[in-house]
Amino acid sequence: EHTINQIAAGEVIERPAAVVKELVENSIDAGSNAITVEIKEGGMSLIRITDNGSGIDEEDMPYVFLRHSTSKIRTAEDLLKVSSLGFRGEALSSIAAVSQVELVTKTSGTFTGIRYQIAGGDEKSLEHIGCPDGTTFIVRNLFYNTPARRKFLKSPVTEAGYISDLMERLAVSHPGIAFKFINNGQIKLHTSGNNNLKDIIYNVYGRDVTSHLLEITGKSGQTEMVGYIAKPIVSRGNRNYENYFINGRYIKSPLISKAIEEAYRPYIMLHRYPFTSVHIRIDTQLIDVNVHPAKLEIRFKNGEELYQLIYHTLKNALEGREL
Ligand code: ADP
Ligand code: MG
Description:
Bound molecules: adenosine-5'-diphosphate, magnesium ion
Radius of gyration: 20 Å
Family: Belongs to the DNA mismatch repair MutL/HexB family.
Largest sheet: 8 strands, mixed
Distance between the termini: 63 Å
CATH superfamily of the largest domain: Histidine kinase-like ATPase, C-terminal domain
Oligomer: single chain
CATH topology of the largest domain: Heat Shock Protein 90
Organism: Anaerocolumna cellulosilytica
Protein name: DNA mismatch repair protein MutL
């Protein structure tokens, strides 16, 4: 049974940034409005995630680390309209299979919290303790029992860089959540969570980007988009600045990238890519998020409509810009 968990773990958890992504997504799904992520040695020796969300009920504790156990999907039909970031119920089991996990959690309805320890998928202890509402996950010694996977990791600085990029995208995708990211004791990112996207963009990307922003809004049927794009001078040789979010989920989509890049094409040099922070709200029945293990890809049922919406919204903003 543990072997199966480890094999499956490889699909979801390939590096420390994947642990951070899954745990922060759980914190977001739990309704948190403040999330702190702390790492040491690129997340290899320590990852600590603290949230102020719903917490986990004591009676649910035996289940949350079981594979395919989720509180977010109850029927096959639910899978057709996923609104949470998680839904596979395999993140916690995968993480616990390849690390030493300590969990402290408390729901608002109880007086005491729970401290739970699990290592290599085996439960170590459960005790009651005093703690604030919310959940803290501590993941130690990632891949301690899977040396082959550990060997595949890059240097701590590189792994920390992946986590830092991820934290920036998470902060921008959820402007209403205050994010703090601490690397080896140093605060690297701190957003207010004041729900003002422009403030968050300033916070994350600084003045250079923020002073060249164009606000965008667009609507087509039930699908809405808002956000900011930058004037073409803020271009890059890679797509790191070209970000878009579907219902708060950071994804990669050839269709959306193409719509963005076609809109910019008359204004930008070949092989240069713009800054975008495009936030799309779309009916959950029009998308399929159950395509990719890391949930990075989405299938669209109204792809052509979406393409036109993005292309024309950006094109109009770029044509009307002050020069
Ligand atoms: P999924 O997110 O797909 O449901 P996970 O393995 O990531 O699966 O998490 C399992 C379950 O543990 C979740 O469905 C949720 O009920 C609970 N859980 C995990 N993290 C948290 C958290 N930070 N706050 C509250 N509940 C959580
Ligand atoms: Mg999850």
